[in-house]
């Protein structure tokens, strides 16, 4: 704990990052994102704003039983108490306490213009609000981070008052005071100057943090500048998601701090998870991963094979700013899809399938993944589909529990306003031809019901499997008609959940592919024989 | 000319930016991009590498007659002469001369390791290549820029040699020597340190340039740091397009230099063209504009309203780092979960609908938005649906161009493997009962085709409207069966795009709602009457 406290990697994907236009996480999504961030090894995960957002209140309640964090601690976010109220009576403060997180992050005004014009209270009352609220949580044994909203503008306008807010927070027991460039207008030189000045004026070794927004396209640089000037706590979000142009991308922050400045900010063995975690969170947020993102983008180390292809191959250090493998990425010379042998092998090993002694299988799977990814498939968030693909290659061919003859799905909006969906599937199961019909509240549910009905007599274990979540993405949507649809299906059994993928120009057929993988995986999982395999 | 020479905005979208994976400009595309960059007012446009790329040779030939530049000068790119050859005999040098541009940009090795290991020549010969080639073009009356490839790594490895390359170029008559962070591994503090040191060691006021790549997510910051350290020439690309994570985004560079550092880098009246030029170039490159791009993204100034909508309304300067209008952008308030009256009013005003004098309508819309958002609707990305909702409240009721009787959609996977979708809609249009059938590559396309077929005779303007993008989200996926599906449909006419939303437990019905809004909006838009409304 002591040494981890020398530097804080603080992730706010689930709170500030969720302000990104178009993003809307379910509670289940939030739990999955938190699990991924913990796997990556960040020190703190800010999960949301209990009280203000009902979904976030539920997230913290479920997190207590459903999240088993290995590296990170959860942080709940809230504001200082209302002006003129007693801190203990403030319902928002109570909701924050009730989240029962080991740490809380409080946002406070530090720009006197915001105090007077937005909050409409006095300079003194704002300081009292900061002091009271910090002390209240410290007294309850919580670690307190204080986010100074609009700090840099506030410091420029009235440095004395901005510093007074910082001093008040420290005096009340705050662990770290975070300087926020809330409107994102700063440049690195200004950040460095201000952080340096603030440290000098406070004296000692104040524990300062940095929260940057990307409105000048400098959020990562501003964060690095603050660290170089002495900040020991940095706030970022996965892939830089956030309001307006977003927050500082935590993957670029990690990459820069680790490989450029020699700060060890992740536990051993975690840096190489960056690419996978980045892409998996993008899938959950239902945002296409930025292929050109620094460090983690599929094209981050893609060189157009020009005059220097052979030189690059012989001497990659001359052309790459870091070795792509250390962040879990690959160098690509030709214009091909990602997934080299190394990442397939790494991924397989994670799933308990050792391909080290099977170069033939490794090659076959790598080729197949490349070919499918070129068609729009993505295995980043679809472990079950990837596992089926590797197992099929290991076993010498696909082992489906059934074969399809045909299906038909009908969706009707009737004259009386009722909307009904019905699906009929014709399949062969263990030599028997089975026709089954299912209804559902949509075409995919109906198809799922029909397929399950056809299979369940032969595979009774499927009766406990159900469809938990369903995500759809249109790829290359320049014209609706030419696009390809990618579907991710999350299924759950009694023990755990798994995700599968399907791609086709028709959303129903894409869903069918994902459902077939989902139930195939479910059948394999339900068979007692598999437990020992 | 003299004063314009004090600072160079040098655009390389068409040369280095064209290295971006997936980008392939035709010559006509290149001419269009050059025209847009000239309109924006950049000082130099690097158009390509004649000789190396046949398309670029043609570009320069056509540019002489087809491009009428008002602000910019064209630059052709090339390399220093081959080792051991006479400069006048080098075919690549000849092709560069034949491009007949007033200026050329020569790339040279400045990292001794690249000289020895990639170029496989001697330190001395490389210096001779630089000196000969620069002098050759200067003698022909051309202005010469020299790009020092991998300068920062080279300077770190062998500062004396790197400086010798710079000195050789200046001695031979180069106008500007550009320090390139070719592999993009630098951070701003290191750039500032190196540029400062180089200037000191060279003495006088050397005319230095900066070329940054975005591999640390700091390309813009590195460019700004170089300018702060004395560089007077910066190279960037539109939207940061380029190899790997790309180049420095010229729009963010312009925004930062102008609004943060007070450098006037564009002619009067040009700054506000940034958004339009950025999006137009994205269209030509066939890349979806990055909605979260600094300064020019559609979401760059989009605030999730929440608690502070009223404060933002009164005092936008407290929340925006610059006035969005000066770069041709708009502030947008997103109507979200926490929408109150203030944000509904503000949003309506953005859409040209003033509700200030209609508190009854404002209340009704606010209530309706809250109720619908509780059901899973989201208007933050669906301006067209929001506008229809407000207009319906203003006009006293919904004004749909048709009413639905029923529809039926069938998706079949046939025995021969073919997947087909077909939809039939029965609607009433202006008193007439219409039955129409459409096919598509999925249920939504089929439904869209059928509905459009039913309406187009009465509303011929719809023939130019099509479905551009389609997004699906399952909300609260705790159990597939209980989930609600939200669909966002982006449609486009001849002039602009609009987004609509639909929510239902059945994905097809949700899509239907979004399609109905999309075509209703399309009909209203296509009616000439609306232009004056």
Describe this structure in words.
Two copies of one chain form a homodimer. Chain A has 533 residues and is α/β, with parallel strands linked by helices. Among the domains of chain A are: 3-285, TIM Barrel; 402-458, Double Stranded RNA Binding Domain (2-Layer Sandwich), CATH 3.30.160. Chain A has 18 helices and 14 strands. In chain A, helix 9 crosses helix 10, helix 14 packs across helix 15 (383-395) and helix 16 (443-455) packs parallel to helix 17 (507-526). The two termini of chain A are 39 Å apart. The interface between A and B is large, with 112 and 114 residues. Strand 9 (403-413) of chain A pairs antiparallel with strand 11 (403-413) of chain B.
CATH class placement of the domain at 3-285 in chain A = Alpha Beta
Q: Give the low-pLDDT segments of chain A.
A: 333-339, 477-481, 527-533
Discrete helix count of chain A: 18
- Spatial strand arrangement across the major sheet of chain A: 1-2-3-4-5-6-7-8
- Most extensive chain-chain interface: A-B, 112 and 114 residues
The Cα radius of gyration of chain A reads 26 Å
CATH topology of the domain at 3-285 in chain A: TIM Barrel
Instruction: Assign the CATH architecture of the domain at 3-285 in chain A.
Output: Alpha-Beta Barrel
Query: What's the multimeric state?
Result: homodimer
